[in-house]
Specification:
Mean pLDDT: 80
Largest sheet: 5 strands, antiparallel
Structural class: alpha+beta
Strand content: 25-35%
Helix content: 25-40%
Radius of gyration: 18 Å
Distance between the termini: 62 Å
Low-confidence stretches: 1-17, 187-204
């Protein structure tokens, strides 16, 4: 009976392990640093990886070029890296795994972590940014020091346009995404961003 109980727990854990999303940085053929999105699918969700790249187990997708990201001039990225919790809030709206995979496969985006190559606004890998990003995921992810990933949508000119969601992990290391809402006023976004920048520069 004990063996059957352990087997049931093992199978339940295996079945709930759907996808894992991560990314790493490498040099492209043009000798330029670029981020690569990696998606690993369980047997139960192999159709998602099959859709994304034609492989049932794992997919790799080099991120598209991000205009003006590699520098300190982009105000939207500054708003993310400097005062994340002030400018954005996480919701309880959870993305379905299929929607997350289709977004990563088909949309124009970049993934951001506290160790992102696009962090020109704070000390790279700073604990301050790490804790700020972790606050967007549930308590478990924070306690396990899981590394949240922000999905930033790019516009038609490949510029950072909208912070769409945060990718967190649960106790089974399954990745899932929660929708992010912006606290920035769409009509006065530039003016508000300028105010934030001035406050940061003045040490407020």
């Amino acid at each position: 009976m004990k063996f059957l109980a352990l087997l049931y727990i093992f199978l339940l854990t295996f079945q709930t392990k759907a996808i894992e999303v991560s990314f790493y940085t490498e040099k492209s053929k043009d000798n330029i640093y670029q981020d690569v999105t990696k998606v690993t699918c369980s047997i139960n969700e192999s159709n998602l990886c099959q859709y994304m790249c034609g492989d049932k187990k794992v997919c790799y997708r080099p991120e598209l070029k991000c205009t003006n990201c590699a520098g300190s001039t982009d105000q939207f990225l500054r708003a993310i890296f400097t005062k994340t919790e002030f400018n954005f809030s996480v919701t309880q709206q959870k993305w379905q795994s299929g929607y997350l995979i289709s977004y990563l496969a088909d949309k124009y985006y970049i993934l951001l972590s506290y160790r992102s190559i696009y962090n020109f606004h704070k000390i790279w890998g700073s604990e301050e940014v790490a804790k700020s990003f972790q606050s967007f995921c549930p308590q478990y992810a924070q306690e396990q020091n899981e590394e949240p990933l922000f999905i930033v949508q790019l516009d038609d000119s490949d510029r950072p346009h909208q912070l769409k969601a945060v990718i967190c992990k649960d106790e089974n290391h399954q990745s899932y995404a929660l929708t992010i809402e912006s606290k920035l006023d769409p009509k006065g976004e530039s003016q508000k961003l300028s105010t934030i920048i001035n406050q940061n520069q003045n040490g407020e």
